Request: fold
Amino acid sequence: MKNKISFFKALSTLSALSALSTLSLGAAEYSAGTFNWNSHLMFRYTADKSTGAVDSFSLHKAYVNAYFKPMPELTAHLRLALNRLHVQREGLGRAYLDYQPLKYWHFQAGLIPMPMIREIYLFEPELDLLGRSQTVLRLFSNEPGNADTGLAALGRWRQFDGGVALVNGSGPNIADNTEAKTFVSRLAVNFEGLRLGGYAYTGDQILPRRAYPVTKNRFGGELCIGAQDQNLRAEYHRGQDETTLSQGWFIQADMILGIFSPEAYRKWEWLQRFRPIIRFESFDPDIKTLNNRQTTTSVALHYSPSTLGLSEAPAGTRSSAQGAVIRLSAQYDAKREEDQKNQLRNNVFTAQIQVQF
Ligand SMILES: [Ca+2]
Ligand SMILES: [Ca+2]
Reply:
């Protein structure tokens, strides 16, 4: 009970601090445990002729992440989305308890991140300007932050890591809309700088204009060379919604100089402040229909005044001395329809300022 009171006390402190827009990272020791928080703000300029959002400036996203550790093995994670504009659902994005009885074993309950392909699972999409791929956005449109209500077990053993989860299958902040649960699993193997992984998501859903639940399956795989922020990777995803089959794949190069010449990368600090990313993607929303694929080529350049990376800080791993992290980004997405007669003016230019504090 004491822990509970302290937790809410910590939350009210957090809102007061946010209101003051203080630019220091919160980390406080309470008698009942450790409390950490950080926040992300993204201001954007978008030129997008297809949606009519031409020349628009916006506060694209605002998030607060909070972590409370009442004891070493237990962490409460909370993530609040504070604006409605581009976050599909305002409010709780994540809210779960993580119990870690051993170094590499976790049990989670609540509004959890689903254990899937490592990159989707680990990356917060807004920390990576290319964001989630179009394929993933289309296949997981009910779970924009890859979260759902359920239980998960995650572990690592030698070169293998993986996880299993049982979730509602309806996305965050929505009650289970079918009687069946959805089963999610992931398995990956890591050699030196090389990762091979796959996932399976099997469940059901209620589609618009259907009174009964129908199949919702997702399968995918990844191949990745290099570390998390400097890699070359490819992913494939396949979806089934009732009888409709869709699929997509992409290949992405992220600051790959670090893979080919780690020495040069380490030596030239200015280079670490710039982060170029390029991705080529193809998505087919219906395999049985001809000529409706779309390809997207995305190019982005990020610049950070400091060499610190933006991250979702796990509890207790950042110190207030690190202060705010700022990143400036520019991105261009060129989209091309497979049907030559049906080309759309849907290329998008985005410029963004992102602040984590
Ligand atoms: Ca369900
Ligand atoms: Ca097709």
In short: The first helix runs from residue 2 to 19. The pocket of calcium ion (ligand 1) is lined by residues 168-170, 176, 178, 180-182 (CB under 6 Å).
